[in-house]
Amino acid sequence: MKIAFTVNGPGEYAGWLRPLLFALYARVPALDASVFFVPDDFATGREPEVARAEFPRLRAFTSREYVRFALGGTIAGAPESVDRVQYLGGDLMHVARLHARLGGEATSYKFSRARYRKRFARVFAVDEPNRAQLLGWKTPPDRIQVVGNLAIDGALREAQTPNEPVERFAADAVLIMPGSRKAEIANLVPFYLQVALRLRRLEPSIPILFGISPFTTVEELARALQRGGTPLAYGARGSVAVRDGAIFIASQDGSQEFPAVYHALRAAASARLVVTIPGTKTIELAALGVPTIVTVPFNAPEAAVITGPLQYVERIPLVGIPIKRELALRFSRRFKYFAQPNVDVDRELVPELWGTLTPGFVAQKLFERYADDAWRQRSSVELRAIYGAHVGASQRMADALAA
Predict the structure, then answer these.
(1) Under a CB-based contact definition with an 8 Å cutoff, are residues 171 and 266 in contact?
(2) What's the predicted TM-score (pTM) here?
(3) How close are the terminal C-alpha atoms of the chain, in Å?
(4) Number of CB atoms found within 10 A of residue 5's CB
(5) Which residue from 341, 354, 353 is spatially nearest to 384, judged by alpha carbons?
(6) Which one-letter DSSP state was computed for residue 177?
(7) 293: which strand partners?
(8) Which of 62, 82, 315, 401 lies 20 to 30 Å (CA to CA) from residue 121?
(9) Do 147 and 212 belong to one domain?
(10) 299: pLDDT confidence band, cut at 50, 70 and 90?
(11) Are residues 94 and 198 in the same domain?
(12) Is 145 found in the same domain as 43?
């Protein structure tokens, strides 16, 4: 079986492609798989490198290589044809272009549009609301198959993988997950370092660690901490040290330091409380039943990533930044909730802290929730229940693709 995927960013790779590939390689040992990472403002640029390291047999192509291939050029190692082209992120035009070049059947996951109703032989849906959305996009009913959310299997797999050092650092800890995009690393790592320092002042005995994305390098962390982020985020300057294979984030004077681990979901399974930002991780943490607080800082809305050409409006002299700030705030007002579990249950099950946030305020909320045993136990049970039916989505989709 030969299959090609389109993927755009770190969330789609880790949450969608990764669990599906594990299931596909187990289902079809001779699988010939290629992934084309398509251009995207949310990408880190390290996705192909991470994918090759995790799946040595996988052919992974950068966004630049994809563009050359999509425009009719040749790239080393690219397949001449495939049995399927599967959409797993990015603009749908990319999967259409690959399908035109590579042939086979085109299939999608979660998204479609009316103009693609004849192109996609199958569209895999996350749940019944997603199925209704696909019907609204004119997808023929007989071409829709509900399989579940792939991210759930990915989270469970990582959380169940033994890692003694990570488990030791994470036991009963507050886990900080700052995100993986460049702007998030640059501004939120210093912000959360300040949160960690304030929390340690409130209660020195609370273990605190950072969960770092595999797409983030130690050098990126060091640069972010050296600069301290945007002044509007009230972050702290610091440094990074690597000792005996372990990473530590330290305060500027070196008096305080916090371990940082790459296996964040394994750490989350042992942690007592997690603080993070909106994104795929909120779904994965809910599947693990980990009590979580989501922060949505509007301290510097102009630093947000906005998909499409509006991302670059800040480059207009004098007026660009104020315009982008206003656009980002208007966009945020469209949402009742920011954490996906809250969206899915239509209530604030995961506490959301949004607006102009200070590290002291966030630290105080973490301190209160950390000590609230009744809330944490209730939250864990309710979070697990949201996505329990999605377990096995990657296997169901792998079976359908291989059929």
Answers:
(1) no
(2) 0.90
(3) 10
(4) 30
(5) 341
(6) E
(7) 275
(8) 62
(9) no
(10) confident
(11) no
(12) yes
Q: Does 295 lie in the same domain as 208?
A: yes
What is the domain range of residue 205?
158-389
Report the candidate in 9, 19, 70, 1 with the shortest Cα–Cα distance to residue 44: 9
| Other beta carbons less than 10 A from residue 80's beta carbon | 9
Give the count of domains, the chain. Answer: 2
CATH of the domain at 285: 3.40.50.2000
Angle between helices 18-27 and 393-402 in degrees, nearest 10: 50
- The answer on 199 and 251 residing in a single domain is yes
What's the farthest any 2 CA atoms get from each other in the chain? 63
Residue the block writes with tokens 């403002």: 41
Same domain, 130 and 52: yes
Cα–Cα distance measured from residue 401 to residue 326, given in angstroms and rounded to the nearest whole number: 44
SS3 of 229, please?
coil
Kindly state the tokens that stand for 155: 């989270």
**What is the tens place of the pLDDT at every residue in 342-357?**
999 999 999 999 989 9
One domain for residues 319 and 183 = yes
254 and 328 belong to one structural domain: yes
Of the two residues 321 and 351, the one the predictor is more confident about is 351
Q: Which residue has the tokens 């599967």?
A: 86
Strand partners, 353: 295
Sign of CA dihedral 136, 142, 143, 144: positive
Contact between residue 261 and residue 211 where contact means Cβ atoms under 8 Å apart: yes
Nearest to 356 by CA among 208, 200, 191, 209: 191
Q: How far apart are CA 212 and CA 215, in angstroms?
A: 8
